[in-house]
Amino acid sequence: MWVVRPAQLKDLPDIKALASALKARVSSTVPADEAKLAEKIEYSRRSLAGEPDTAGNERLMFVLENTKTGKVHGTAGIDARAGSGHPFYNYRRDALIHASHELGVSSRVDVLYPSHALTDRTLLCSFMIAPELRGTEAFELLSRARLLFVARHRALFAKLMAVEIQGVQLESGAVPFWDSLGRHFFNMDFETADAHSGALSKTFIAELMPPNPIYVTLLTDAAQAALGQPHAMAAQTCDLLDREGFQIGNYVDIFDGGPVLEARTDMLRSVIGSHRKTLRTGEEIRGDVYLVSIGEGEAFRCVLSVLSEGLVETVKMPVTLQTQLNCSHGDELLVVPL
User: Fold this and answer.
1) Which is the catalytic residue, given 73, 116, 196, 231?
2) What is the pTM of this model?
3) Residue 73 annotated as catalytic
4) Could you read off the pLDDT of 206-255 as tens digits, one per residue?
5) Which of 28, 163, 232, 331 has a CB 3.0–4.6 Å from the CB of 194, allowing a cystine?
């Protein structure tokens, strides 16, 4: 059985191994450095425990565990506030009209403006999953479980939400957008800059990036073609988020030019479609498959299960699954159809 739960320090070797196995960039918010990863897991634990120093800047990390083996096969995160107290930088896409009445010439030029307008939105982040699980129910469980966490802890999160999607990266490792723009100002390769973004404060971006608008036509053809396009590995993630209610906005990632998706938190499918149900024990369960969550904070768990709808906001769940979730007759569940 697959279960999504908060990350623990014991998961560190599995998470590090997964990140190493995924050769394409998967997430700047999952640091490759073991010490930094341990700090991230510990900060998530303190956020879930409601420790005062994390209030307002909660950063949460969840894992996808195979309960038969105890191995972790994916991660997914939520930053309650993008930037976590620092500016959250992106490029805003816009256009300028250059015209000469005397010459009778008018042209539209695409422009990128440095922006931190998305700061303090809730940010979905740190998503990576074993390649063989993409397109499976486990993939959907990992991505959507964190939205059930949001629904269970709604006061922690902002009215608006964003997701940065990985941008185009070639098989060689080259990143066309970065190679055409960022590397000229940062004097470092993409991997180094991306690692700094995940492990350090974002002030170095403001210090090194040009404050002036960037004319897209001055970028290489490859960079222009990559602008706002997702990495091939992220296509299924985009499809799932589109079904949730996310839409492509006017912002792109400042490093690889990948798209930024935006949504109203209370309009997301897994938030508005979730319902609180009281658990009843049943012998024979026939019904549809649901995402089922139980527990608050560190006790949060989310699984897939066949549920039988009962009367007066009740559902029946197999006894074997109740045992694995450590829940019982009369407990409250939050459920949403798969």
Assistant:
1) 231
2) 0.90
3) no
4) 677 788 899 999 999 999 999 999 998 888 899 999 999 999 999 999 88
5) 28
